[in-house]
């Protein structure tokens, strides 16, 4: 319990730092009166982060700001923290793509005017932005598995296309890449200067936003990399389950989870009222408005400081936004309690976790391949992995979220290997279900690799509650 609290506190502190650096007035969407206790944003800036001033975790505007992940000053992170006698062996990075244009439009409204070209005189900016564009224009199809080779390598539409990565999204991942470069390459020398193609493993789903996010991170990590040494594999499934995607029981968990979600929505009369009001404003049936998933588009307005849309009948406003966002937070809370999503996640995340421990085990045998692995993915990829690992307190993956597995070797006991798990720079190793108790008996600030291996090979299935002890049986359990 103590450690769970400490975890929350760490997350809260990180969040507060991000928040304080933002200044509430940045967003004209937020009435200044929302500042709590009459504290103006100016005096807020000056005070030291204090957990007491942390807004309640359910503040929808605060949560939405974290989700936007607007690039600001260099963040603090705990990647690469280890005692001197530990050697970094390999690193496995899972990212969500950066800030993107909405996937859905609010019916009968003008879509937000956001420019997806990359230009220096627009915020947010990164010093490597122009060099990134110029390097991307030298790329060739040979570096990408089909059908990735038909995708543009950087965003380039004056009015963003649906789902397109924005400049904010590129900058977020250039920053991620640079941060990982400083820690893993400059400090820990994970790769030699003349690294070879087989030391890096790259995989992405077939969307331009994931490919471009992966490229931006890679460029920040290895500026001006040699295109001939780069090969991005294509992953058709958002679960990254490759050849092991068929799993009927996982789908049954998902159906039950969706049913739970539906029932919770029906219970929320304020939410229904809000959808009704918004439907009236845009003049479509409530059902159609709801099906258009308006929160996705509203988050884009919110993150980009663009006013919510108006029609002759009125405007979509901050109150609507807060109600829908609050419901999302409630939904996540119930999702944790009911555990259906956990069942889905344990089965959904198994293949990619299995692949990752396979890579780690090969590295412990001294193989020098795939020492840096990057999976460029989606919220629906990271979320099940977090849940499967037991990180249920972790926030929903924000834009450009990163989840990292580090593999370390103890130089004093070279046969011993350990892992660290980091989510958005926060060390969450001892919050995972496979390492919760470990720190109580060991002075090492890491988790033995065996714990993770045992979890992935067996304990994940035991956690499902049936008698299965392997993936195939757990996926085909009768009478579930
Ligand atoms: C947000 O929009 C408002 C109104 O359009 C503007 O006054 C303000 O400067 C904008 N903030 C930023 C940081 O762009
Ligand atoms: C797990 O990985 C091993 C190789 O490391 C592989 O042989 C096995 O088929 C994988 N299992 C699943 C269910 O993906």
Automatic annotation (TrEMBL):
Major place of residence: Golgi
Subcellular location as annotated: Golgi apparatus membrane
GO MF terms, alphabetically ordered: phosphatase activity
Key words of the record: Glycoprotein, Golgi apparatus, Hydrolase, Membrane, Signal-anchor, Transmembrane, Transmembrane helix
GO biological process, one term: glycosaminoglycan biosynthetic process
Catalytic activity as recorded in UniProt: 3-O-[beta-D-GlcA-(1->3)-beta-D-Gal-(1->3)-beta-D-Gal-(1->4)-beta-D-2-O-P-Xyl]-L-seryl-[protein] + H2O = 3-O-(beta-D-GlcA-(1->3)-beta-D-Gal-(1->3)-beta-D-Gal-(1->4)-beta-D-Xyl)-L-seryl-[protein] + phosphate
Topological category with respect to the lipid bilayer: Single-pass type II membrane protein
GO cellular component: Golgi membrane
InterPro entries to which the protein is assigned, alphabetical: His_Pase_clade-2, His_PPase_superfam, Histidine_acid_phosphatase
Keyword NAD among UniProt keywords: no
Keyword Transcription regulation attributed: no
Subunit structure: Interacts with B3GAT3; the interaction increases the 2-phosphoxylose phosphatase activity of PXYLP1 during completion of linkage region formation in a B3GAT3-mediated manner.
Protein function: Responsible for the 2-O-dephosphorylation of xylose in the glycosaminoglycan-protein linkage region of proteoglycans thereby regulating the amount of mature glycosaminoglycan (GAG) chains. Sulfated glycosaminoglycans (GAGs), including heparan sulfate and chondroitin sulfate, are synthesized on the so-called common GAG-protein linkage region (GlcUAbeta1-3Galbeta1-3Galbeta1-4Xylbeta1-O-Ser) of core proteins, which is formed by the stepwise addition of monosaccharide residues by the respective specific glycosyltransferases.
Family to which the UniProt record says this protein belongs: Belongs to the histidine acid phosphatase family.
Name of the protein: 2-phosphoxylose phosphatase 1
Organism field: Nomascus leucogenys
Gene assigned in the entry: PXYLP1
């Amino acid at each position: 319990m103590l450690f769970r609290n400490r975890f929350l506190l760490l997350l809260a502190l990180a969040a507060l730092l991000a928040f304080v650096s933002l200044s509430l007035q940045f967003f004209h969407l937020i009435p200044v009166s929302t500042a709590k206790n009459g504290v103006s944003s100016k005096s807020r800036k000056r005070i030291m982060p204090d957990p007491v001033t942390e807004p309640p975790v359910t503040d929808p505007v605060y949560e939405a700001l974290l989700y936007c992940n607007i690039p600001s000053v260099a963040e603090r992170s705990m990647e690469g923290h280890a005692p001197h006698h530990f050697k970094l062996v390999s690193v496995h990075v899972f990212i969500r793509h950066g800030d993107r244009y909405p996937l859905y439009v609010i019916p009968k409204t003008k879509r937000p005017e956001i420019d997806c070209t990359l230009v220096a005189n627009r915020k947010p900016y990164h010093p490597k932005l122009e060099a990134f564009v110029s390097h991307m224009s030298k790329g060739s199809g040979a570096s990408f598995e089909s059908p990735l080779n038909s995708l543009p390598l950087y965003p380039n539409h004056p009015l963003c296309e649906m789902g397109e990565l924005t400049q904010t999204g590129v900058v977020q991942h250039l920053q991620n890449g640079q941060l990982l470069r400083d820690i893993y390459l400059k400090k820990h020398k994970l790769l030699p200067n003349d690294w070879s193609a087989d030391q890096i493993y790259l995989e992405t789903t077939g969307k331009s936003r994931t490919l471009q996010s992966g490229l931006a991170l890679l460029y920040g990590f290895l500026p001006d990399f040699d295109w001939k040494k780069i090969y991005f594999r294509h992953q058709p499934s958002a679960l990254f389950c490759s050849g092991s995607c068929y799993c009927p029981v996982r789908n049954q968990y998902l159906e039950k989870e969706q049913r739970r979600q539906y029932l919770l929505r029906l219970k929320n009369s304020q939410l229904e009222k809000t959808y009704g009001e918004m439907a009236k404003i845009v003049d479509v049936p409530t059902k159609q408005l709801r099906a258009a998933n308006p929160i996705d588009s509203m988050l884009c307005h919110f993150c980009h400081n663009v006013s919510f849309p108006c029609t002759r009948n009125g405007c979509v406003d901050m109150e609507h936004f807060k109600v829908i966002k609050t419901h999302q937070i409630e939904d996540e809370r119930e999702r944790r309690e009911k555990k259906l999503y956990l069942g889905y996640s344990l089965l959904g995340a198994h293949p990619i976790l299995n692949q990752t421990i396979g890579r780690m085990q090969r590295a412990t045998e001294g193989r020098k391949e795939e020492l840096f692995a990057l999976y460029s993915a989606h919220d629906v990829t990271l979320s099940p992995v977090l849940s499967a690992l037991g990180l249920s307190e972790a926030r929903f993956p924000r834009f450009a979220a990163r989840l990292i597995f580090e593999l370390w070797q103890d130089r004093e006991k070279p046969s011993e290997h350990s892992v660290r798990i980091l989510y958005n720079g926060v060390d969450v190793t001892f919050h995972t279900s496979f390492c919760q108790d470990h720190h109580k008996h060991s002075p090492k600030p890491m988790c033995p690799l065996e714990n993770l291996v045992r979890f992935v090979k067996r304990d994940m299935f035991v956690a499902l509650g049936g008698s299965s002890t392997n993936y195939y049986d757990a996926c085909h359990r009768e009478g579930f």
